[in-house]
UniProtKB/TrEMBL annotation:
Stretch list, region Cytidylate kinase: 1-229
Main location: cytoplasm
Boundaries of the shown chain within the full protein: 285 to 513 of 520
Molecular function (Gene Ontology), one example: dCMP kinase activity
Chain's gene name: panC/cmk
Gene Ontology BP, a term: nucleobase-containing small molecule interconversion
Keywords: ATP-binding, Cytoplasm, Kinase, Ligase, Multifunctional enzyme, Nucleotide-binding, Pantothenate biosynthesis, Transferase
Family recorded in the similarity comment: Belongs to the pantothenate synthetase family. In the C-terminal section; belongs to the cytidylate kinase family. Type 1 subfamily.
Role played: Catalyzes the condensation of pantoate with beta-alanine in an ATP-dependent reaction via a pantoyl-adenylate intermediate.
Transmembrane segments: none
Protein known as: Bifunctional pantoate ligase/cytidylate kinase
Location in or out of the cell: Cytoplasm
Residues in Cytidylate kinase domain copies: 6-226
Superkingdom classification of source: Bacteria
GO cellular component: cytosol
Length: 229
């Protein structure tokens, strides 16, 4: 029998990765950022000059793209992103670019891409003891997860958080409405695609984070975990 799995799904910018990382830290579990894998592949597609809208060309790249990421025990309580490599090139920062973010939903909608990355994710989770975040973790990747969370926030709140993140990174800060539109567009693509669209699993618990601090969200999830396991 394997150790427990926590699945955290939800729309773009709801704070899944920050929360998942902190929950993993508190419970001594591994953290798996599945969005980073779709981003890494999208980075490679763009780097190769391949059209992200061409599923045949993208599928041909798959055998040449080895994605590696630290699904490590989170050592400290600072929400640092996972480190990611494509064919041994470090792409941790590059996969967060606006170009990758704009194309990732197109690549992630493709059948061959999902088949390949879901398989890799399930391998990471074979022994359990994992907190995984994404769009289809509770519905497709780990449908047997012991605890499923659907993390949400209003578009306005998510756009504001994104502005604050960019400010903290000293990066250019677009207008709120521009950020809100980018978020809406990615949610629309992710929830209307044919394969594994973003959906709340039937047995997932919705946690709406608008009025909560990160710490409060993390406390809720760790409390739910302790009740479940
Ligand atoms: O979580 P993050 O925003 O980094 O994910 C980037 C994109 O990767 C999502 O917008 C979605 O298109 C795709 N994704 C997915 N399934 C997952 C995780 C991410 O389709 N499990």
């Amino acid at each position: 029998s394997r150790a427990p799995i926590i699945a955290i799904d939800g729309p773009a910018g709801a704070g899944k990765s920050t929360v998942a990382r902190l929950v993993a830290h508190q419970l001594g579990l591994l953290y798996l950022d599945t969005g980073a894998m779709y981003r890494a592949l999208t980075w490679y597609v763009l780097e190769q000059g391949t059209d992200p809208q061409d599923p045949v060309a993208v599928a041909e790249l798959l055998p040449h793209c080895q994605i590696r990421l630290t699904a490590q025990v989170v050592q400290d309580d600072q929400p640092q992103p996972s480190e990611v490599w494509v064919n041994d090139r470090p792409v941790t920062q590059a996969i967060r670019s606006a170009e990758v973010t704009a194309q990732v939903s197109t690549v992630a909608a493709q059948a061959a891409v999902r088949q390949r990355l879901v398989q890799q994710q399930q391998q990471y989770g074979q022994q359990g003891g994992v907190v995984a975040d994404g769009r289809d973790i509770g519905t497709q990747v780990f449908p047997q997860a012991e605890l499923k969370i659907f993390l949400t926030a209003s578009v306005a709140e998510r756009a504001q958080r994104r502005q604050r993140d960019l400010q903290a990174l000293e990066q250019p800060v677009p207008e709120l409405e521009v950020l809100a539109e980018t978020i809406r567009e990615r949610d629309r693509k992710d929830s209307t695609r044919a394969i594994s669209p973003l959906r709340q699993a039937k047995d997932a618990i919705e946690v709406s984070t608008d009025a909560l601090t990160i710490e409060q969200v993390v406390d809720q999830i760790t409390a739910l975990y302790r009740q479940t396991v």
